[in-house]
Amino acid sequence: MRTGLSFLLLWSTRLIGSDAMLIRSNPSYVSVWRPMTANSEHSRLTLRHDLNEDPAYVKVEGRTDTGFIFPAFGSSQQDDDTGTLYGGVVFVYNLTHIDIFVSHINNNNWKMNWTAIYTGDESKWSGPKYLNRRYESIAVQAKVWRSRDLPPPTWRNTTRVTNQGCVNEILMHSLNRYPDLIVVQIRKGHTLSQGQGLSSLGYITRKFYHFGGVLYGTNESHVQLWSPCDITGMLNFESLIAVADGWGEKDFELLIRDGFLTVTAWDLKEFRRNERVVIKHLKDVEADNFQIMANLASYNLINIQLHVLDGANRGFRFDGVGSVMNEAEPYGGLVYGYNDSMVAIWVPHLGNGIIEESKVAVFMLGKSWGSGFNKQMTNNVDIVIKVMDMLVPTCLLEVGSLKTRRFESSNHDKYNDSTLKFSVGDQIKLTCKTGLYSSEQNVTMACAHRNNGSWDRHLPEECYKLCPDIDPTTLNTEIMQNDNTTRPGRTVMYACSPRYRHVSGDLNRRCRKDGRWSGTAPVCEECKCPCSLVGSVPIKSNETEKLKQRIRELRSSLSVQKNMTAKARRQKVCASDPRPSARMLGIVFCVGVITVVISAIAYMDLSSFIFII
């Protein structure tokens, strides 16, 4: 069940998949089957859907005691002044309620005129012979889809209709194929109704006749619209929505003659599965006793349409209807009901069983609709049954057990016990719980249309607790490395101060996810002797050999080799000096040495000479 209230979840969350998630389209509201009876206190039923928004699509159906289901109308096309038999289920709706009506006496006292569902007199309508034609008591059910329950529409158009306006319009849509689903909504204020494909009513001349509705048909490129029009200049009560004079309860009247028409069409080629299409010509349906066998039990979208094969509306398709409202000539229409295994069809005929198109026809568009725009009567038609599972793009969010973020959303559904479902356009806000932190403290995410439904960003990281700040004055230590943050996973490295040694605790500590530092604080103590000697074992006085060995080790470590002294290295290493003063000193020194040597030689030679003399 979808909730409209924003709330908080103290759970961690996980996105389910990055690709499209297509699930079966289901209405937000489905009523139980409720009893209704024509011309009784149960001829009007009000259901509360309480969705507090205008529905995108509403489906109301009536079920007979035979199990066949018949679609309802968005407007009545008959009142009780004619004195003729009619039936049908009519509904209107708003943002909180659905109002459902069946026929009820107003100012005609002939009780036999009213029934809830009517498939036509046997002398005027052909259909399965074993099924009843009149059902005074039925059960009804309503289903409501919001826009988020449906796939994104392919095309939409809104037209304003002024008071007593006459609609005869053709619109070009963008699908380039027959729509799989089309919804025509009539709106005045907060009152809405829906159009229908066909009407059994063709031409009205009576001044006080209450009738209304919007008819529509589609082909591969266009949508045609018709509303009741006063072509005689005498009508007073033709309307876009009419529920009056013979519907719901005595003296009830709802007439809406202006407002807005919104046409929405869907091409579901990306949003469907298990599609099945059956097309049969009217003659083939008649040969099969007006029954078309089809398995309809498992589908959520069922369309029964009439396909026109000639004339002004050739190629257009019109939805069938769920009851006969008129049998005064000219009349026509395709009435159908279905169960899990078949579709039953009723079409008009004359007393001799031969259809005369000038008076009645299966496809009948009379001149009271759209002032005769594309008016036509023909029996050259196919009946098209299309069923499928309609899918809707969805984003999923798994709800876990870790309490790290608060979750806020005003729109979501429960997909299963551990997963929430969001529709395209829905937004969520993820906020770190009080006392927890993240680089993305507050994050907003949206379910986007791309890929047929996916979140517009990745799920943010989990929130976490911060570790306490590192104390830079931890006794007798120095911080060698620090990431300058206290997030989980960050580390700090300590070292003991000079003349202190590490005796306990951890020099490397890491911030954990629980907001605490790993290990314990380091402890450094002052060294009483050189720190490198701390831990040496003392030598006793009677341990002579150990003492000698220790003296040898000390001598070895303290001895200095002569060739390793600074003086020895200076004597062995000659290095050039590029300074000018050094060059002059070298020259003077060399000249002096040479002079001394020559003088010594000369002196020795001179001494020898004197001695000889």
Strand content: 35-45%
Radius of gyration: 49 Å
Number of helices: 4
Runs in which pLDDT lies below 50 for 5 or more consecutive residues are 1-14, 16-20, 606-613
Helix amount: under 10%
Shape type = elongated
> Mean pLDDT across all residues, rounded?
84
**Main sheet specs:** 8 strands, antiparallel
Domain unit count: 2
Number of E-type strands: 47
Category by helix and strand content: mainly beta
Distance between the termini: 145 Å
InterPro entries: Sushi/SCR/CCP_sf (IPR035976), Sushi_SCR_CCP_dom (IPR000436)
Organism: Magallana gigas
Protein name: Sushi domain-containing protein
Keywords: Disulfide bond, Glycoprotein, Membrane, Repeat, Signal, Sushi, Transmembrane, Transmembrane helix
Report on the structure:
The protein has 613 residues and is mostly beta strands. It folds into 2 domains: 383 residues, no CATH class; 57 residues, Complement Module, domain 1 (Ribbon), CATH 2.10.70. The protein has 4 helices and 47 strands. The strands form 14 sheets. Strands 2, 3, 26, 28, 29, 36, 38 and 39 form an 8-stranded antiparallel beta sheet that branches. The protein has a 5-stranded antiparallel beta sheet with strand order 1-37-40-41-42, with no helix packed on it. It is elongated and about 160 Å long. The N terminus and C terminus are likely disordered.
Write the topology of this structure:
Blueprint: E1 7-10, E2 13-15, E3 21-24, E4 29-30, E5 34-37, E6 44-48, E7 57-63, E8 69-71, E9 90-93, E10 97-101, E11 117-118, E12 125-126, E13 134-135, E14 137-145, E15 155-161, E16 168-172, E17 181-188, E18 191-194, E19 211-212, E20 215-218, E21 222-226, E22 238-239, E23 241-244, E24 253-256, E25 259-266, E26 272-281, H1 282-287, E27 291-293, E28 301-308, E29 317-319, E30 331-332, E31 335-338, E32 342-348, E33 360-361, E34 363-365, E35 376-378, E36 381-399, E37 405-409, E38 413-416, E39 419-423, E40 427-432, E41 442-448, E42 454-455, E43 477-482, E44 491-496, E45 500-504, E46 508-510, E47 523-526, H2 544-558, H3 566-572, H4 580-612
Parallel strand pairs: 19-22, 30-33
Antiparallel strand pairs: 1-37, 2-36, 3-36, 4-14, 5-14, 6-10, 7-8, 7-14, 9-10, 11-13, 12-32, 15-25, 16-21, 17-18, 17-25, 20-21, 23-24, 26-36, 27-32, 28-29, 28-36, 31-32, 34-35, 36-39, 37-40, 38-39, 40-41, 41-42, 43-44, 44-46, 45-47
